[in-house]
Amino acid sequence: DAGVIQSPRHEVTEMGQEVTLRCKPISGHNSLFWYRQTMMRGLELLIYFNNNVPIDDSGMPEDRFSAKMPNASFSTLKIQPSEPRDSAVYFCASSLSADSSYNEQFFGPGTRLTVL
Amino acid sequence: KQEVTQIPAALSVPEGENLVLNCSFTDSAIYNLQWFRQDPGKGLTSLLLIQSSQREQTSGRLNASLDKSSGRSTLYIAASQPGDSATYLCAVRRDTGGFKTIFGAGTRLFVKA
Fold it and tell me: Are B59 and B77 in contact (CB under 8 A)?
């Protein structure tokens, strides 16, 4: 299996621009998680989906952030408009199911976002 | 509110030494606890997952234990190698309110050859 795939790996944009991050979970996994990692705040869960349905989006920082999962093999995290404080590494992770204690989360390589 | 703390923040040891990394959490109502490794500029690699009903898990030179009542987990690394140098993170999945995952800040390990 190719693992969790994220694109792009690096994104540099200017303040005010729209940014879209993409994720393909491991085939057969029903849960997908979006995280953000910064030096100051560490790893934070932004949102997660179970069977394509958003379950907990309490970590989404502001209305500028939105996430979708139109099907089992694809998810997007969008920031519009972007701000310099959004600069971070964004990780996508997937697991077989969100509601089983057996299931490990597997992480993608991350997207390093820089907003100038 | 669940808080996860990892001590020490950084650790430097000579090759061959056995070592213990610590993770503590404030709310014992957890679903599971997972240990990860993160190399600089890379994603997270899952090492071990302990379910709330388990006491420990082992994989090769790694052993993770869980004591829910005291809110603690330890990751034991036997016969450390330079290739073990990385940041180790523990993540606690709570069993209420949507199974949210909370990460510790990590322990940065350096194993000297």
Answer: no
Q: Which of residues 55-74 of B touch A (CB under 8 A)?
A: none
Local structure of A73: helix, strand or coil: coil
Q: Report the distance separating Cα B40 and Cα B48, nearest Å.
A: 20
- Tens digits of residue pLDDT in B15-29: 999 999 999 999 888
Mean pLDDT of B85-104: 86
Supply B72's token pair.
């603690």
Scanning A7-66 for CB atoms below 8 A from B yields 33, 42-45, 48, 55-56, 58-59
Residues of A within 8 A of B89 (CB-CB) are 43
